């Protein structure tokens, strides 16, 4: 089915980091005046490939480089972007690992930052077996949670 009101694409690229304890890395953020829990990553820039995008985002968010293990999922259905009117959202997810030991702060609690101010971010591990769709904010991430549980279950 065509959605004729859609005028452009938004492409997002995310990294799925799973540690030796079968936990996945989540990011809690306050962006666009909204609290959100999602997988680390961000927007693809014009002229940039998805792999280059997740590598750039990793340096921006974690302050360190990553390696791609494998492609995990790309949106395979229509999803309108929540923050961009009349835009179709396509999200690409890669399984990634850090090239070195983690050097950034990982918290035990959600939204572990001093104030709800745009740009604030904290990271935490969540056991995949305990991960639920309600733990993430966005529709495509919810599908990825289901896929993760199917693959690990």
Describe the structure in your own words.
By secondary structure, the chain is of the alpha/beta class. It has a single domain (about 10-150), classed as Alpha-Beta Complex (Nucleoside Triphosphate Pyrophosphohydrolase). About 20% of the residues lie in helices and about 40% in strands. The chain contains two helices and eight strands; from the N terminus they run ββββαββββα. The chain has helices spanning about 50-60, 140-150; strands spanning about 10-15, 25-30, 35-40, 40-45, 65-75, 85-100, 105, 120-125. It has a four-stranded mixed beta sheet, with helices on one face. A hairpin with a 2-residue loop joins β2 (about 25-30) and β3. The chain starts with 7 loop residues before the first strand and ends with a helix.
In short:
By secondary structure, the protein is α/β, with parallel strands linked by helices.
Report the CATH architecture.
Alpha-Beta Complex
CATH T-level topology: Nucleoside Triphosphate Pyrophosphohydrolase
SS content category:
alpha/beta
Largest sheet: 4 strands, mixed
* CATH H level, superfamily name: Nucleoside Triphosphate Pyrophosphohydrolase
Residue share in β-strands: 35-45%
**Radius of gyration from the CA trace?**
15 Å
- Which residues sit in consecutive blocks of at least 5 with pLDDT less than 50? none
SSE sequence, one letter per element: EEEEHEEEEH
Number of domains: 1
Per DSSP, the total helix count is 2
Number of strands: 8
Categorize the overall geometry.
Answer: globular
């Amino acid at each position: 089915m065509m959605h004729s009101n859609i005028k452009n694409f938004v492409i997002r690229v995310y990294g799925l980091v799973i540690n030796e304890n079968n936990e996945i890395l989540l990011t809690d953020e306050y962006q666009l005046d909204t609290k959100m829990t999602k997988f680390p990553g961000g927007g693809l820039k014009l002229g940039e490939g998805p792999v280059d995008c997740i590598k750039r985002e990793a340096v921006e968010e974690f302050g360190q480089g990553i390696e791609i293990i494998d492609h995990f999922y790309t949106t395979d259905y229509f999803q309108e972007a929540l923050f961009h009117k009349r835009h179709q959202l396509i999200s690409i997810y890669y399984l990634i690992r850090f090239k070195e030991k983690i050097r950034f702060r990982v918290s035990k609690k959600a939204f572990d930052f001093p104030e709800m101010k745009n740009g604030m971010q904290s990271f935490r591990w969540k056991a995949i077996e305990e991960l639920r769709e309600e733990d993430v904010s966005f529709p495509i991430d919810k599908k990825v949670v289901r896929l993760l549980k199917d693959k690990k279950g």
